[in-house]
């Protein structure tokens, strides 16, 4: 009797290199890059670390999602059960950053501190409209997917990606304008809080766009996992909701 043959109900371990690839990317893109820039003041090494880490992150996420799509029919999965737990953990990280900002803001004798330029509210309002619109377009895509229209779903996901990319472009423009005025990360307490909170949110937008790409590329070939599509939408709506807190606290208070 060949014991190597599979039996009904027998559990089979599956291995994947992509979680390891993802961890390597995160290692280079976050702790190494930040340490090189803020601790050792080596901008070139920080840029090189980001140049290594970001492609590994994209590779890891794309490969892992691709494997999930290939095996979606084999497992029921627990993604939509675990995702709310993950979102709560992310919300707590944002809360810790907001609490730090509130402590700085309320304990300061003068706010904003000397050296802070006036940060306008027009661009943040435009960015809010863009980001909320991207949630609406993705929801329209999910409605098309529920109706069995995969092409329509892919089109709306593409629109959502364009809007998310436009939002990040606005952030880059704003950062460039403020840095040109001498408002950098180490200028004062406000600059540290501003770049930390908005930058952390921007990183979540970037991750959400990567998720959308991982959903869009297979969808363009007619392969769609409803679980992945739903999970990406939940994550994106969370990121959009957090932005309302960011813009109200950082720009309007």
Characterization of this structure:
The structure is a single chain. The chain is an all-alpha fold. It has two domains: 68 residues; 174 residues, Cytochrome c oxidase, subunit III, four-helix bundle (Four Helix Bundle (Hemerythrin (Met), subunit A), Up-down Bundle). It is built from seven helices and no strands. Helix 5 packs antiparallel against helix 6. It starts with 17 loop residues before the first helix and ends with a helix. The N terminus is likely disordered.
Largest sheet: none
H and E string: HHHHHHH
Please identify the structural class as seen in this structure.
mainly alpha
Percentage of residues in strands:
under 5%
Count of β-strands:
0
Number of helices: 7
Between the first and last Cα atoms, what is the distance in angstroms? 73 Å
The CATH superfamily of the largest domain is Cytochrome c oxidase, subunit III, four-helix bundle
CATH architectural name of the largest domain: Up-down Bundle
CATH class membership of the largest domain: Mainly Alpha
Mean pLDDT: 88
**Overall number of structural domains:** 2
Low-confidence stretches: 1-6
Shape: globular
CATH topology of the largest domain: Four Helix Bundle (Hemerythrin (Met), subunit A)
* DSSP helix fraction: over 70%
Calculate Rg over CA atoms: 21 Å
Can you lay out the helices and strands and say which pair or pack?
Elements: H1 18-39, H2 43-70, H3 79-107, H4 122-146, H5 150-180, H6 189-220, H7 226-251
Helix pairs in contact: 1-2, 2-6, 3-6, 3-7, 4-5, 4-7, 5-6, 6-7
């Amino acid at each position: 009797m060949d014991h190597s043959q599979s039996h009904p109900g027998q559990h089979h371990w599956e291995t994947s290199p992509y979680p390891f690839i993802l961890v390597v990317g995160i290692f280079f893109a976050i702790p190494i890059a930040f340490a090189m820039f803020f601790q050792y003041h080596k901008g070139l090494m920080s840029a090189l670390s980001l140049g290594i880490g970001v492609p590994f992150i994209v590779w890891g996420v794309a490969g892992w999602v691709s494997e999930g799509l290939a095996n979606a029919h084999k497992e029921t999965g627990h993604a939509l059960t675990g995702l709310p737990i993950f979102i709560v953990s992310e919300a707590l990280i944002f809360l810790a950053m907001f609490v730090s900002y509130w402590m700085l803001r309320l304990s300061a004798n003068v706010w904003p501190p000397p050296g802070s330029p006036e940060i306008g509210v027009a661009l943040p309002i435009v960015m809010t409209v863009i980001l909320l619109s991207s949630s609406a377009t993705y929801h329209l895509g999910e409605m098309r997917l529920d109706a069995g229209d995969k092409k329509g779903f892919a089109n709306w996901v593409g629109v959502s990606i364009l809007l998310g990319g436009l939002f990040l472009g606005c952030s880059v423009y704003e950062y460039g304008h403020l840095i040109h005025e001498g408002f950098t990360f180490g200028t004062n307490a406000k600059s540290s809080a501003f770049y930390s909170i908005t930058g952390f949110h921007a990183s979540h937008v970037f991750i959400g766009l990567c998720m959308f790409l991982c959903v869009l590329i297979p969808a363009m070939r007619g392969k769609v996992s409803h679980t992945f599509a739903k999970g990406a939408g939940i994550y994106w709506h969370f990121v959009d909701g957090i932005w309302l807190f960011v813009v109200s606290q950082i720009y309007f208070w």
